[in-house]
């Protein structure tokens, strides 16, 4: 863990680069040609990402079964879907956007008071991974540990600006409830007991984190990415996308599809831990973020994760002679160390688990 004590190079805020008026981006942000957003289909806007009306869960047996089936199909076919009628108030969504927009527009010296380091990543950051000389993403962020309660109570959110605390707490409570509902839906859709996935995650001792992403204007968006292609290492991700500027792209075969967020919706995606627990019946999917020359972009990603010290492995009921166990057990503490060291690297982490023999 010694390598996670400090960043390998001086951290430069991408927002400061953007505000400086530079016309060309520094070399360390330039992606190899094969990774640039201009490659492939260019990510044409599509409405094909499934949209699911969660209100059906409370509308009688037939509607409930149809909603569960819609979630199962979305997880099997896309790994991504949007949810509407999710129970989180529009007023709260507007307020949480407002407080984080305000933070990223504070003077730089005020934001610097919350600068993070690689030990926990908590606070104001501009890179993920500690490999010296790595290609960097065109974006800044604020990362915060929300659950379990023991972590939050222990550190009392020292990295969180006081102006954000009440709204962030309310938002975290509501999204944790939404994730709890989705975990039940996933369990049922896999033919498991309703609480089985939640129990595998640690019951009430689950983990949760928030990453607020800020993507400044970029003079050469065709050469870089706001966030490198990756699958999420945790369980479920609930994304509140920018309501004005598109940027999220999802891999679909050999192409990248740009997601068009529906007003008032959340974008949900399956993480690596659900892929492991489901024995790859549901798969995490690579996604990335493109940036914009004319407009900045803000998004909030809420990560719902297993308790960090519980070994995660395929649920025994989903392991059969026809579908043998694909992944060896690993705790989330061990698992996330990979991305904290190397940064986002496609699906290389979960695939490395699959490549190893399972006893």
UniProtKB/TrEMBL annotation:
Pfam name, any one: DIOX_N
GO BP, sorted A to Z: defense response; negative regulation of defense response to insect; regulation of defense response to fungus; regulation of jasmonic acid mediated signaling pathway
UniProt cross-references to InterPro entries, sorted A to Z: DIOX_N, IPNS-like_FE2OG_OXY, IPNS-like_sf, Oxoglu/Fe-dep_dioxygenase_dom, Plant_2OG-oxidoreductases
GO molecular function: jasmonic acid hydrolase; metal ion binding; oxidoreductase activity
Cofactor(s) this protein requires: L-ascorbate; Fe(2+)
Catalytic activity: jasmonate + 2-oxoglutarate + O2 = (1R,2R)-12-hydroxyjasmonate + succinate + CO2
Domain Fe2OG dioxygenase: from-to ranges: 205-306
Transmembrane intervals: none
Keywords: Iron, Jasmonic acid signaling pathway, Metal-binding, Oxidoreductase, Plant defense
Family: Belongs to the iron/ascorbate-dependent oxidoreductase family.
Name listed for the protein in its UniProt record: Fe2OG dioxygenase domain-containing protein
Higher taxonomy: Eukaryota, Viridiplantae, Streptophyta, Embryophyta, Tracheophyta
